[in-house]
Amino acid sequence: MTPRKYDPVVYKTPTGSVLNCKGWVQEAALRMLLNNLDPEVAERPDDLIVYGGRGKAARNFESLDLIIKALKDIEEDETLLIQSGKPVGILTTHKDAPRVLLSNSQLVPKWATWEHFTELEKKGLMMYGQMTAGSWIYIGSQGIVQGTYETFAALADKHFNGSLKGTLSVTAGLGGMGGAQPLAVTMCDGVSLIAEVEEWRIDKRLETKYLDVKYTGIDEAIDRAVEARANKETISIGVLCNAVHLLQRLIDRNIQVDVLTDQTSAHDPLIGYVPHTLLNEEANALREKDPQQYIALSYDSMKLHVELMLELQKRGAITFDYGNNLRARAQEHGLKNAFDFPGFVPAYIRPLFCEGKGPFRWAALSGDPADIAVTDKVITELFPENKSLQRWMKMAKEKIAFQGLPARICWLGQGEREKAGLAFNELVRTGKVKAPIVIGRDHLDTGSVASPNRETESMLDGSDAVADWPVLNALVNTAGGASWVSLHHGGGVGMGYSIHAGMVIVADGTDDAAKRLSRVLRNDPGMGVIRHADAGYDIALDTLRKNGLSIQERLK
Ligand code: NAD
């Protein structure tokens, strides 16, 4: 039997204000699932892969077809259950309960390895959900642009007086997430030089204007980057090569690098990372023929990769890990000082998490970009005092091309998310937008993830690996009435390294939705504030008190 492929007609995302399902919440789930797989959005729709190595939206095409059928069928007091990308049941709940509950890639801790997962995946028993792939709220690279921008902006504030002008940032990986890097550095006025082994990925980022130019020769690319830095230009340069080869060449030529990171899919040594000792075609062949040998080469390469990063750090580059678990891979392979450079969360993002700030995103179910323009205006007017938000919104409108359903993202904190959600519901109720708005977030957020090498690295109280928090987060969002809730394992950093939860909520203009929005958009970031306050962070303790979230105050 020939393997099935993505069919753009059958799986086209519905738009407009006519329902295909029995309610807007089910309709939103249907549209966002199909939007995840839209070729403009997904990295490899033929394999149902959305982003992040092998992060999928459904286990296989049979499951996809069945999920679509189920979403069209379920009533407003029923809930569809998804087990690692496969629909397994429809149960009676009630109108304020989630319409879909998803659990993806969960393994009992002792079995939580890629080896065991891959075995199960081959038998058709599991699927890797990454973060927003398996929870149907990926919106293309824009989703990560804001987070990446926040990181580079915080780095610029900390080390370069607020701007990357006249600096060179070197990184690798132009995939679903990594593709946001060039644009984020450009937004901070710097020069970026990015290695990528697959030419089509570079071309895709050029098409969406996330990247400015492509080079196929390493030396030419380096020359252009050095010249641009000297001229204080703002430009992003993609170079077709392995990250290891680029870093080695920068060292050989004694080029000073200002900022250094990496976003290859190092979390997955088999499907995600390409060893520097293999050409692409060789890598594809070996992956099939001898996965063990492939993984061994990957580990060799990742160890060298981190050694080169440490060398450039020694030579003055501000170096950080960008959430792909590269350091752990190198350490697993014997590099003792792999963690000598920090992860991006403790280095730049945690103070934001302490205020309940995180990646709030929304999409216009109408499919009409004009609806996003209306929401952009509302957000800009709601938070005039938030200067970095104002700057982001201006640049996002100018520089970000929509992929799939028109969508927007911005980082909002405790109190702000609830305010925004209710304002959107009002836009739908008063007909200022043409269809409901769906609101969600990445799992990379303040209260929704335990990931000791990333979001919860170096917690003040040493609670990095405590995973009760994301579980509570999924439970509280279910209790509060989110539209769909997911609990995943292994996203971002790979099997055994993370547990995280997602939530999505629909603003359909009804009074019931307003109540649900108010609860969920207060509780969800609130979990993050509580989690960070419990770990002892002063900013979180302050946010906790200001927002009436303190259990001590409550029970006094
Ligand atoms: P992806 O699989 O879509 O893209 C990875 C890219 O790296 C691919 O284009 C691949 O060709 C390229 N690549 C692989 N090995 C390479 C090498 N040695 N040299 C040069 N290029 C190479 O993954 P993605 O969605 O872009 O995510 C990248 C990584 O970042 C993942 O590990 C992911 O878990 C992690 N991540 C980071 C964040 C964050 O906020 N920083 C968030 C989510 C995920």
TrEMBL record:
<feature type="active site">
    <location>
        <position position="410"/>
    </location>
</feature>
<dbReference type="InterPro" id="IPR023637">
    <property type="entry name" value="Urocanase-like"/>
</dbReference>
<keyword id="KW-0963">Cytoplasm</keyword>
<dbReference type="Pfam" id="PF17391">
    <property type="entry name" value="Urocanase_N"/>
</dbReference>
<dbReference type="InterPro" id="IPR023636">
    <property type="entry name" value="Urocanase_CS"/>
</dbReference>
<feature type="binding site">
    <location>
        <position position="130"/>
    </location>
    <ligand>
        <name>NAD(+)</name>
    </ligand>
</feature>
<dbReference type="InterPro" id="IPR036190">
    <property type="entry name" value="Urocanase_sf"/>
</dbReference>
<dbReference type="Pfam" id="PF17392">
    <property type="entry name" value="Urocanase_C"/>
</dbReference>
<dbReference type="InterPro" id="IPR055351">
    <property type="entry name" value="Urocanase"/>
</dbReference>
<dbReference type="InterPro" id="IPR035085">
    <property type="entry name" value="Urocanase_Rossmann-like"/>
</dbReference>
<feature type="binding site">
    <location>
        <begin position="263"/>
        <end position="267"/>
    </location>
    <ligand>
        <name>NAD(+)</name>
    </ligand>
</feature>
<feature type="binding site">
    <location>
        <begin position="52"/>
        <end position="53"/>
    </location>
    <ligand>
        <name>NAD(+)</name>
    </ligand>
</feature>
<feature type="binding site">
    <location>
        <position position="201"/>
    </location>
    <ligand>
        <name>NAD(+)</name>
    </ligand>
</feature>
<comment type="pathway">
    <text>Amino-acid degradation; L-histidine degradation into L-glutamate; N-formimidoyl-L-glutamate from L-histidine: step 2/3.</text>
</comment>
<feature type="domain" description="Urocanase C-terminal">
    <location>
        <begin position="351"/>
        <end position="545"/>
    </location>
</feature>
<dbReference type="InterPro" id="IPR038364">
    <property type="entry name" value="Urocanase_central_sf"/>
</dbReference>
<feature type="binding site">
    <location>
        <position position="322"/>
    </location>
    <ligand>
        <name>NAD(+)</name>
    </ligand>
</feature>
<comment type="similarity">
    <text>Belongs to the urocanase family.</text>
</comment>
<dbReference type="InterPro" id="IPR035401">
    <property type="entry name" value="Urocanase_C"/>
</dbReference>
<protein>
    <recommendedName>
        <fullName>Urocanate hydratase</fullName>
        <ecNumber>4.2.1.49</ecNumber>
    </recommendedName>
</protein>
<keyword id="KW-0369">Histidine metabolism</keyword>
<feature type="binding site">
    <location>
        <begin position="176"/>
        <end position="178"/>
    </location>
    <ligand>
        <name>NAD(+)</name>
    </ligand>
</feature>
<feature type="binding site">
    <location>
        <position position="196"/>
    </location>
    <ligand>
        <name>NAD(+)</name>
    </ligand>
</feature>
<comment type="function">
    <text>Catalyzes the conversion of urocanate to 4-imidazolone-5-propionate.</text>
</comment>
<feature type="domain" description="Urocanase Rossmann-like">
    <location>
        <begin position="140"/>
        <end position="348"/>
    </location>
</feature>
<dbReference type="Pfam" id="PF01175">
    <property type="entry name" value="Urocanase"/>
</dbReference>
<feature type="binding site">
    <location>
        <begin position="242"/>
        <end position="243"/>
    </location>
    <ligand>
        <name>NAD(+)</name>
    </ligand>
</feature>
<dbReference type="InterPro" id="IPR035400">
    <property type="entry name" value="Urocanase_N"/>
</dbReference>
<feature type="binding site">
    <location>
        <begin position="273"/>
        <end position="274"/>
    </location>
    <ligand>
        <name>NAD(+)</name>
    </ligand>
</feature>
<dbReference type="GO" id="GO:0016153">
    <property type="term" value="F:urocanate hydratase activity"/>
</dbReference>
<feature type="binding site">
    <location>
        <position position="492"/>
    </location>
    <ligand>
        <name>NAD(+)</name>
    </ligand>
</feature>
<keyword id="KW-0520">NAD</keyword>
<feature type="domain" description="Urocanase N-terminal">
    <location>
        <begin position="12"/>
        <end position="137"/>
    </location>
</feature>
<keyword id="KW-0456">Lyase</keyword>
